[in-house]
Amino acid sequence: MSLSAHLVAQDSSWRQRSELAALADLPPQLDSELERLDKEFWVSAEKLKEVVNRFREELDEGLQENGRNIPMNITWVHSLPSGNERGTFLTLDLGGTNLRVCKVTLHGQEPPNPTNSPSPGQKFSLEQEQYKLPDHIKSSTAEELWTHIADKLSTFLSSKGLDKEYTKEKPMPLGFTFSYPATQDAINHAVLQTWTKGFDIKGVEGHDVAAQLREKMAARNLPLELICVINDTVGAMIASAYNDPETIIGAIFGTGCNAAYMSSLSSIAKLSPSDPRLKSSSSSGGKTTGKMAINCEYGAFDNAHAVLPRTAYDAQIDAASPRPGEQSFEKLSAGLYLGEIFRLVLLDLADRGLVFKDRDVGRLRQPYTIDTSFLSQIEDDESAGFAQSRQMCRETLGFDLADGEVELTRRLAELIAVRGARLCACGVAAICTKEGITRGHVAADGSVANKHPKFKRRWARALGEILDWDRREGEEDPIVITSAEDGSGVGCAIIAAMEMERRGRRA
Ligand code: BGC
Fold this sequence. Notes:
Blueprint: H1 3-11, H2 14-17, H3 28-41, H4 45-64, E1 73-74, E2 86-94, E3 98-107, E4 124-132, H5 142-159, H6 162-165, E5 172-178, E6 182-183, E7 191-192, H7 209-219, E8 224-230, H8 232-243, E9 247-253, E10 257-264, H9 276-281, E11 291-295, H10 312-320, H11 328-333, H12 335-351, H13 372-380, H14 387-397, H15 403-435, E12 440-445, H16 447-451, H17 455-466, E13 479-483, H18 487-502
Parallel strand pairs: 2-5, 5-8, 9-12, 12-13
Antiparallel strand pairs: 1-11, 2-3, 3-4, 6-7, 9-10, 10-11
């Protein structure tokens, strides 16, 4: 699309911008409410650029010194993989919703052996179990968390016979994907800065999660050696670069949002070239690659509320969260919150007598009853008379929608998802402009990126608006969002392999 066409699109009203077919004309009162919501939720290209400018500054500040708003965490991952990493590893992934344990075998460039490689040409094989994290764990204690994790590790090891194959003297190498902000003095050390994604487990913030996990594993006699603690964004970048050399960034658009990229050491002012940790983390012979993967933790962007277009609903979500004032950017754009924003808007309209009259809105009053997939299903509903959306609302909220209300929920789901996708483009745009990156692949993972079919298109369009691309039909964009390989499993195993190689060992 040409720049002028873009400008027309930006100035057009929501009615012209909407990608949805209309069902019914709305009553005038609802119509004007929708106009108001559109004004509050639409982020123009001009505003996106303003957000990106401040974003760049905050990314830079985080590289200057510790303790700034966006922490720009140093990860001790010094290079992208060669593609030839090999070995067998256990990986543990503590995500926002699940705990996943995998046995990953990396084949490197070896011609895959048809007996152990599930699909020809695949450079790894993987066996995994996913365990749903019980809700109460998220607000429990360190003791409960690590006991639960050690239980699952132990179950996995015995179910796969790995407890017989490995011993305490010859342990299985373990990689841990811990997707929360952490300060690392080494790759096998990670002090939790603050919980995000609604977690509130006592006794972990300010502590080294690697040490806590190690202690529990030792108490259980598990034959495992913790080699690395990584963030999911770094895992996504590394796993994708294992196959795709054009990978420039690993990004998660899921329950939370964040990204990682390779920075040159000289840009990281807070890390002195004579820092002894650099020497001990570099390859044998004390040489560094001159690079470092940075886990931005940019969900914290604009905690000062200087530029983000926050609505009263966003403020409500923040105030009711376990860590008010933190993760401001994430609270406007990540999967954990999109459904909650939607619920709060509907509840506000209901309380003002504009929708759902004479129906019991008890379920709508319960926080977090609506998740992101609810929004995407409403937006994608092409069933006759939107029967599917009506059915979903009946099941989730316990009442039927009138025609005008179906129309309203569809528009609202769209407004919230579009705002989220457009803001998500700002983080990546800030990294690219700061680093002078003009081409490459952004390896993206997470429920919003994968399960919301319109997300990638909306994200790409916003990125083009920010970077002033002259997009032409059929031409590939210079910066493309791709589907990341499995970062928390395969990516974590690759990082463990790179670390063992650096230490002169093989798994
Ligand atoms: C966490 C990050 C993580 C992101 C995506 C955020 O809440 O702080 O560490 O990368 O979610 O999972």
